[in-house]
Amino acid sequence: MSDSTTFVGGVKDRVTWEAFAWCVLILGAYFLSLDFDRPLPYYPPGAAFWPHIVQFGMAISAIVLLVSRFLPQTALDEAAQTPDYIEEAPDDLAGITWRTIAVFLIPLVWVYAMHQMGFLIVTPFFLIAFTWLMGVTRWRTLLYFGIGFYLLLLIIFYKLIFTPLPMGAGFFHTINAEILAVLQ
Amino acid sequence: MEDFLAGTALLFTNPIGIGIFIAGLVGGLVFGAIPGLNALTLAAVLLPFTAWIPAEFAIMLYGVIYVSGVYGGAITAILFNIPGSVENAPTAFDGYPMTRKGEPSKAIGYAVTCSAIGGTLSAILMMIATEPIADFAVSTFGPIEITALIFFGLTVVAGVGSKSLAKGWLSLGLGLTIGVVGGDPVGATPRYTFGTLYLTGGIGFSPLILGLFAVSEVFIQGQRLVRGSYKAPNLSVSYPSFSELWAMKWAVVRSTIIGWFSGILPGVGATLAAFLSYNEAVRWSKNPERFGTGEPEGVVAPETANNAATGAAMIPLLALGLPGGALTAMMIGVFNLHDMDVGPLIMVEAPELVWILFASMFWASLAILLLGIVEAKGIVHLLRIPFTMLAPGILIFSTIGAYALRGNIFDVYTMFIAGIAGYFLRRSDYSVPAIVMGVILGQIGENSMSQALTILDYNFWGFFTEPVSAVFCGVGVLTIIWGIARRARQFFGA
Predict the structure, then answer these.
(1) Does residue A41 sit in the same domain as residue A120?
(2) Predicted ipTM?
């Protein structure tokens, strides 16, 4: 496993940044809660009472996290290890390539395209693109897998259990509806 | 006993009854295993059609779907880190790490055996003690006690899944904060909704779970694949031995009791049963640090409890007419469709209907054991599919699961945002189980706390003057102190 200290300079730096991020989140949540911090007719503590309890607890935890920055390095290293079963998780951001970014990006593009163009139209492209990104490079395999899996999805979700899936907007909605009519 | 045999005879001497029993069993298993399309979906779809089948078979169908659906969701939780239903989420905490360690069959074996034991014990208890237990539970556990119970649960949750106590508490706080989004439980005042209609109903729990577990897992493994550091899990198809199962006996007994009592409490049900049982497994374990890394007891506890809750949920339903959750509420709908009211008189007015329900739930639990043993050795071969092809499949199934529940594309966006957040949180040793438990326990906890405070005239000390509540609060405070002392010893070597 690569050394986790490589993330932002060192475990102590990382802990500081994390504590800082938590403080921003807690303060942000607190200030936003002022919008609804007023007594309710049948519940005087009001709707912000519970969120404030949570924020108080989180603030104490963030302070403890920050204080842990000053604890002995060895103990901190030990406590900052990732769980055993994900110990090979990629920690080192120095090795970022366009492919590592694409692992996040392609699904997001797919969801946005699905929103606009419908599930039926964009899913085959996503299937092929993501499988290729994962390392399947033979076009025949990609094509067979993409089409086969897509047909399986159509059978399960459109023929057997009639699951409503995104239909897209405008012109694409019409096309999706036409395809759906043929399928069903 | 005679009533039980009569119910069994009624069930298995009629071909229609047998057909409905098998259909419910398979339907519950399949729907329970598809993320987002849980047994509740199947029950909702079938509700109008139950008007055309005899009342005893209609109500039996719902009992069987309930039992098998709760188990079905464990399979995908263990194999792919995709909990089929909310009550199976804690099963993924240790079930999936067991798969990563090459022990998927063992994890499924534990899940199926303990689901069957939990369900069967629950069915037996249901048959012998419906009325007295319902009276005790409903009269003893009010909002004050439930609030104290949740507080105690939260104190345990913070120690799960992270090696740093502060990070465990922060993870829990994040979960509690996510649970706050939407209308407050008293006046439905919008909180953190930013004026959008989508957030008014709160952040969907299914998209959140799918994102934190399934999507973040695809991102983690996907990153490894593109960097060339991916290691496929070794597959073994070994079922847990009798001695391994026997070693879990106290976990099973404890989880059955927790599941049973949680199931009885109206509005609590199988979800809280699974989470509380997991918490207790951690608390009683000699090696709590192993939880979250593939500890078999982490599979045994929630699966026993969520199945034990199914039988218990019938008790307030039949004895008092109080549904414990959505599926039991639908069962009231089935009774109503057949011009019957549930309540104390149902045992007198329609005993054959009640006993066919009891018998069907008992036999469904045993059937799960037989089906599950076969399944444990067969279904794990799905893992032989290369991750290169599994990854897009997991994303697509998760997306469908997130979308299909409410038909809202923003649930899919929520899922992916949760997935990206889960990826970074897991990398930094924050506890995903604590986040998830924070959401579910926080929502139940705030609701009961607001009722409890009204009863106690807004006096917090009241939680320490009610006996049951005082015990839970006291043990909760001790758990916090014990957790701090344990971490302090680690740091300072005292």
Answers:
(1) no
(2) 0.85
